[in-house]
Amino acid sequence: MSTPKTLFDKIWDTHEIDVTEDGLSLVYADRVLIMEMQPQAFEALRQNGLTVRHPEKIIGVIDHVIPTKDRDKPIADPVSRMMVEQARIDYNEFGVELIDMFDPRQGIVHVIGPEQGFTLPGVTLFCADSHTATNGALGCFAMAVGTSEVEHLLATQTLTLPRPKTMRVTVDGVLPAGCSAKDIVLAIIGRIGTAGGTEHVIEYAGSAIRDLSIEGRMTVTNMSVEAGARAGMIAPDEKTFEYVKGRPYAPKGEAWDTALAYWKTLPTDRDAVFDKEVVMDAAQIAPQVTWGTNPEEVAPIDGKVPDPRDAETIDRRRMMERSLRYMGLQPGTAMADIEIDRVFIGSCTNSRIEDLEAAAAVARGRHVADGVSAMVVPGSGLVKREAEARGLDRIFIDAGFEWRDPGCSMCIAMNGDNIEPHQRCASTSNRNFEGRQGRNGRTHLVSPAMAAAAAVTGRLTDVRTLELKSS
After folding, report:
1. Domain boundaries, the chain
2. With 143 labelled, which of 60, 256, 307, 373 sits at a CA distance of 20 to 30 A?
């Protein structure tokens, strides 16, 4: 009888080519995603006289440095403009498909991959971006790599890696009204910490995870890296298969039937053993808001800013004190009393149509509070057009939000979208690090509905206290 395997084990074992004497695995890459941020990888290929081994298994995207407005004008920042121009040269020279800034599919790399059916169950996928784990929501192993590793991937379609450990986070029960996938993953990180998944691949399981849409699952796996994990995964099921079917890069005809039969074998075997297990009750999760400078520093919206004097260790106390100084907060402050200046709805965490629908349900019939600036940045051109077909753009515009073109935008703040020093932003992005959204900017991570609630009230607000307007 064969040994029971996890979802990760099944994928890794079918892609492992060889193992070195020191325990490193040579792994085959089914898919590679790249952005305009890797010109060094292509230059290294030139210098070494190498070609791209399998250009048909690679897609390039322009998303990080491009502006989200005035696309008809030249890119103002000279460095960003040069990066985009160089990407066009590199991709054309090496025969790699590029989804350029004027392509109707253009958008954030981790939105485009699943949206185009390039991300599939059972594959190995690599990208030089921290949040590559997003793709694992479809039941694949998707991991971030560095620029030097991109060169190796382009030249060989393989990568040398240590085999990660496995961890399962099971979230059972029914998620309360007003809560979403973003609240689940923030609660998980609040529980296990930003190092809780270090050296592990996290598989998310349980009824609350299965109840999520594929878009919600992508929100959860997206933030796996914020818990220190190498990747995040969710077993494929009928929702996955329905989501993938018919997409441009998905298998067709007999190839679909063959793929589907394989994908159904992927879920973790009943008696498989994980290196680490965590169990949570979805019913205990409330809408979450970060108060500090990493995603672990999070509290329920009906809670208060914690007191560093209650920290378990001196080091933790000092970290909390630093976070509170940076954020300009006092211990004991009610989270719902914190006023905000900016709102950002977007990023590879929360920029899909479901996210925009949730925010629009709050914004509909309301208006952005005086003194607050709010923007909505769809995750791709397809998301933008779908949102406009549903009238969501008018809801946001009528409510006083800016409606932008797709891109990474204020999540990375290297494209003209940023907050000013000491401004406070309710953001649907994935990182609240110091300076992440702009020098000395203060970021509170929230769900799309919570971000919209903050926009229309001018403060961090429990969305459960507002009447949602879905139509």
Report:
1. 7-162, 165-236+268-284, 288-465
2. 256
Structure confidence at residue 469 (pLDDT): 62
What's the Cα-to-Cα distance from 250 to each of 180, 245, 260, 262, rounded to whole Å?
28, 6, 11, 14
User: Which CATH code of 3.20.20.240, 3.40.1060.10, 2.120.10.30, 3.40.50.300 fits the domain covering 165-236+268-284?
Assistant: 3.40.1060.10
Domain 7-162 fold = Aconitase; domain 3 (3.30.499)
* Mean of pLDDT values over 236-260: 98
Determine the Cα–Cα distance for residues 216 and 70; give it in Å rounded to an integer.
Answer: 31
Q: What is the pLDDT of residue 467?
A: 79
Give the tens place of pLDDT for each residue, 355-367: 999 999 999 999 9
CB count within 10 Å of CB 263 equals: 22
**Per-residue pLDDT, 471:** 55
For the stretch 333-357, pLDDT in tens is 999 999 999 999 999 999 999 999 9
Long-range contacts: 19-27, Cβ < 8 Å, 24+? 20/160, 23/162, 23/163, 24/160, 24/161, 24/162, 25/160, 25/161, 25/162, 25/163, 26/158, 26/159, 26/160, 27/124, 27/158, 27/159, 27/160, 27/161
- Distance (Å, whole) CA 216 – CA 137: 9
Burial of 193 per CB tally in 10 Å (0-12, 13-18, 19+): middle
Overall pTM surpassing 0.70 (yes/no): yes
Contact indicator for 101, 225 with CB cutoff of 8 Å: no
Question: Cα separation of 180 and 126, whole Å?
Answer: 27
Closest to 375 (Cα-Cα) out of 336, 348, 406, 338: 406
Dist CA 128 CA 37 (whole Å): 8
First vs last Cα of the chain: how many Å apart?
55
What CATH number does domain 288-465 carry, 3.30.565.10, 3.40.50.970, 3.30.70.250, 3.30.499.10? 3.30.499.10
